[in-house]
Structure formats: structure tokens, C-alpha cells
């Protein structure tokens, strides 16, 4: 049984590894390069069996049948593609630098993992490799029996034209991706997808979980950001070994080696403990796709950067509040406690999550610090509170947390803003909240 679980754990870790490297900027370009090289080898084989002669026989106007012309053309096209690829890479670096300076360094993983940009760079590399190996395959010593790979040269010309179209698309796409509205929209959509997925999996009634104060504690064996859990594998372990597990670390937190990470209701051997640890996926980066709370952090940091003295852009801060309003409205529907049960409804795993009150406090602490002096942002925050208080909440404590944060914002503005007209407006907004305390 342990062997089967180990193999399943290896498979899950392999899938997690693939998901992580997909976020690297070189992932898809590397795959495209392999495809380009393989296609060049395939075309060289087809040339040996006479594909160019066949094309010349049926469509001679499509094939170049002069070695010097073919070599010059391929050299010229390859040099041109290298030039636009270097320019494209330079634009990517400018994009990342500008995004880091104007918004937040945390948005960089999302920009780097943009698949469309990776596809374009991959097309460049694949075409360069294809043209290079096609060029190598041209025999400078022509004779009656030698057939110039004219069809391969034609394919190289077509691929170069595709590169030019990809370059135009790349210019358009990169100019769009640097706009703060598109960055916010991308983060928001990823968080909505993740939150909706968790809500679909969440049971209507949370199973009770026993007290864990006397349970055995086991430490982490590695360091990194706790991204996700291979829950299916962990459920199988619990059912086979008749154990219950409490996960102590909050998803998205940075875990150090040797820090307590799980509690088990009975003592287990080190081999089984390692099997359980192998179900945890750690990474050196953070992705919204795995942890929706990261979206709140990223959007908040963009808003705070916009309100810094060097940028002073309340409009962007207001936009971040709009997106946070929608995310909080969806988060109101989620339970703070997550308990994974078996088919027989027996509680197996308790997952430690960020509760709504703490999440709201961390977001509002930043906004109260940087926006309490700006009336437009304060008005928008009170509008957010009013909207959220009108939404249905999974727990009544959520509304209490909203009112408590609104009161803190009101108190801070009273001490910061001196204009009596502004203060009266803020007082009116605060009193208009449902049941303010």
C-alpha cells in the first residue's frame, strides 16, 4: 500500500513540477525550439526521398532551385528574425521593469507566465532553428543527381512570414499588458476562478473536527511557499491508515524547514510522515491560480503604490477598491473552516485557512494608512462597506468584521481630515451603513 501511495505521490509531484515550470518565461520557447529542430530533421528526411522534385513537377513556381539564392535568402531571413527576437526580449524586460516600478513586484510572475508572449518567442526560436538546419543541409556542390531542398526553403519563407505577423501581435499585446486596468483584470479573473472552484467543492455543512491539542506534531522537510496540496493522495493515506490530519500552515505562507506543518491523531512512523509531506507542494514563487488570497495582496499593493507620493494616482487606487469589492463579495459566501471528509462523511483533514476577518483587516490596514487623507478613496471604501453589508454572508461574523473595519476607517479619517465639509460627508456615509456600531 505504501508503495502505491509513493508512486501516486511521485506522479502528483511531477504534475506540480510541470505546473510550476509552465510559469517560467523559457518553458514554451523551449518546447517550440524542440519542435522546430524536429521539423527541420523531418524535412531533411523528406528531401532525401524527393519531396522537392515532386513539388517542382506539379508547382515549379513555388520552389527555389538555385543554391546561392536559397542560401542568401535563408541567411537574410534568419538574421532578420534574430533582430526582431532581440527587440522582443528587450521589450519584455522593459515591461517587467516598468510593472515592478509602477505597480508591484508581485505582479511579475503573472506577466512572465503570459502564454501568448511565450508562444511568440517560441515561434521565433523554432523558425531560427529550422532555417539554420535547412541552410546546413544545402549542398554547395550541385550535380545532376543532387536536388536542392527547395520545398524546405519555401517552408522557411512561410515560417518567416508567420514570425512577422507574430511580431505585430506581440507589439499590440505587450502594449496592452502593461496597462494597469488589464493587470488588475487579469489578477481579478484568476482569483474569481479559484474562489468559484473552492466554493463548488465546499460542503453545505462543515463537519466537526476533534480537539488537536494532544496530537502528534510533524515538521516540514523543505523550505518554500506552501502552494497547494495533493488532496486526493492525502485522503487515500488517511483512509488506509485510519488517521486524521490537521494542516497547520496557511496556504500561500512561506514555510521554513523544521517548522511544524501537520498534526496527526496518533503516532506514525517516519516513512508514513514523509509520504504525507510529499503531498505538499512548495515553490519559490507565488501564483494566484493556487492561492486566491494572493490576489487580495497584489491588488492592495497596486493601490498602495498608486497612492505613494511619487505616483499619486487616486484613480488607480479607486479601481483597485472596485475589484476588491467584487472579490470580498464572493469571499463572503465561503466558510472560514475547511474540513475534508470521506465518502461516509467522516472528518479526515482539517485545513487551516485565512479567515475573513483577518483578510479584511490586512487589506484595510494598508488602505487606512495610505488613503485616509484622500476623500475620494475614503468615499469609495465606505461605498464598498455599504455594498458588502447588503450581501448575504455565510457567517454573521463577516458582517461584524465589516462594521468594525468601517468604524476604524471612520476614526482614522476624523483624526486626519481637517475640513469640516469633508468630515460631515464622511459622517453621513458612515451613518448610512446598515446598523453601524
Describe the structure.
The structure is a single chain. With 437 residues, the protein is an alpha+beta fold. Among the domains are: 15-178, no CATH class; 289-335 and 355-431. 64% of the residues lie in helices and 8% in strands. The protein is built from 16 helices and 8 strands. It has helices at residues 2-21, 27-48, 51-58, 67-102, 108-112, 115-136, 150-177, 180-201, 231-241, 270-277, 293-306, 314-331, 356-371, 375-389, 396-416, 420-431, and strands spanning 216-219, 224-229, 245-247, 254-255, 260-264, 280-283, 338-341, 347-351. The strands form 2 sheets. The chain has a 5-stranded mixed β-sheet, with helices on one face. It has a 3-stranded antiparallel β-sheet with strand order 4-2-6, with helices on one face. Helix 14 runs parallel beside helix 16.
